[in-house]
Structures are given as structure tokens and as C-alpha cells.
Write a structure and sequence with these properties.
Elements (H helix, E strand, L loop, with lengths): L8 H12 L8 E6 L5 E5 L2 E5 L1 H5 L6 H9 L2 E2 L1
Antiparallel strand pairs: 1-2, 2-3, 3-4
Helix pairs in contact: 1-3
Amino acid sequence: MMDIKEYGQPEIEVVLAKVRGIKKDIGAYKEHFFTDYGDYMVQLSNGSIRMYPEEIRYRNEIFPERLRDISFRFRPR
């Protein structure tokens, strides 16, 4: 099993691509970091979005309801 801190840009991009199907104005990936709260803060070209490790881990089986939840976490710059 992959350690949660090992997820990188390719895995995060999969989730971002799916979330963009709901919220088209989410910008391009710039960087990410693992927070003290145990989640990921993803910096985008036009803001940021928080993701939980399990959302990245199960990126290929993520439900539409969860994608909507992620889209609500988008914070424009």
C-alpha cells in the first residue's frame, strides 16, 4: 500500500480532471503539499483546492457526489 504522502502530481491530476467535469473553472495544477491536518493543499493557476488522501487513493472509483464535495472546496485566488 502506498504511503499517503507519496501521492504526486499524476494522481492528483486524475482527480482534478474529474472535478473539472463539474466545475469547469478550476485552473491548472501548479504544486501541492501535505498539510499538518493530514490532507493535501493543491495550488492551482487560479486558486487552491483541498483533497483528502482517500480521494486520491481511490481516484479511479470516486463517486460523483464526492467529486461535487471536492469542487465545493475550490477557493479562487
